[in-house]
Fold this protein.
Amino acid sequence: EVQLVESGGGLVQPGGSLRLSCATSGFTFSRSAMSWVRQAPGKGLEWVSSIYSGVPNPYYADSVKGRFTISTDNAKSTLYLQMNSLKSEDTGVYYCNVALAQITWGQGTQVVVSS
């Protein structure tokens, strides 16, 4: 069974940092396409970043480019999102997903950027 479990969210002040984790199991992590997607309160899903096996450079939404870094630890089958210089508009629920025969999602982790 494919499982994704996000963690690392919380309350942070503007300008602060958080690192989100997505622990996975049930598939070959090192050969997979992984993404982070977020949903701000009252809004739709917004793609944040993706990383693909065999592709050296990850992809980022313009809204997070230069502030967020996606990475993987294949030994731990874990996906990360390092978020720096956080802004209030980064507030939302952050989900990781993996594209297999179908896209599988984690349950999400809440990020609140507020003073």
Observations:
- The two ends are 40 Å apart (CA to CA).
- The CA atoms of residues 8 and 52 lie 22 Å apart.
- The chain has a mean pLDDT of 96.
